[in-house]
From TrEMBL:
EC class (word): lyase
SUPFAM superfamilies: Ribosomal protein S5 domain 2-like
Family designation: Belongs to the imidazoleglycerol-phosphate dehydratase family.
Full protein name: Imidazoleglycerol-phosphate dehydratase
Amino acid sequence: MAREATITRTTAETAIAVTVNLDGAGRADLSTGIGFFDHMLSAFARHSRMDLAVSVEGDLEVDGHHSVEDAGIVLGQALGAALGDKAGIARFGSAFVPMDEALVLAALDISGRGQLHWAVEVPFGMVGDFDTQLAREFFIALAANAGITLHVRQLAGDNVHHIFEAAFKACGRALRQAVAIDPALAGEVPSTKGVL
């Protein structure tokens, strides 16, 4: 059974379409209008091994906030839809990713209780065409809409590009572990409650 989904969302600020295939090869087809964000989503796709298509038309004449946050919302919804009832998934995942001087940990639980715990310290400003405040906003939206408890912790790093790239790669690798099918579960939901 294919674990994939396409979600679209249109508001007065953005028009977004996201397709995700949990069992892909890490291919990415990205057009967000924000070059650095495309770069981060490409790293996320490659390291999660999910095929990811993201198209964003946003009010970039204002700034990138609506485009990035709304992309997180729709990607989260698509992940949730692709996971279905979550039967047989490993559920938990974690990864440490170094990127030169930066080191970031991501740990997550596909719990149904969407929340982000973010311990990443970067200065306010821009990296390329990306407002540094928006990485947190993206992951808040992603976690809330996918029903994922997500911890992201910066353990080292000075270069903002390296820190964010390590964070996106770590989240991708942790998610790859968590969505993997565990044959030992024999299709059961990995929870004593019987649902996630």
